[in-house]
Amino acid sequence: MSNEVVILTEAAALHIKEMMKHNEEEGALLRVSVKGGGCSGLSYGMGFDHEVKENDLQSEQHGIQILIDNEDAPILKGTKIDFKQSLMGGGFTIENPNAIASCGCGSSFRTATATGTPEEC
To answer: pTM for the whole thing?
Structure first.
């Protein structure tokens, strides 16, 4: 088991690199976050950032610099981000061992200690 907060698969890293190139964001940092919302109370966020904040945890996997706010780390601990292709297209999959409930769309969840702010789907 990795001691990284978030585990990025090689497939996910390759797709993120393609997205960086397409959006002219080469050299950007990948911020993984948790915010309130979604039908189960919390939802994941992933986006490009150019600034390391004071309370960020930083790691590098497969050539991608990853940032996670220290407050989000316990909720995301052990989360695996992958990218899967299917006949219907491709998409990121997020497997969070801390999630005790999630909704059908797979992007909203809650943990035993963090319930967030549930919304209608």
So the answer is: 0.82
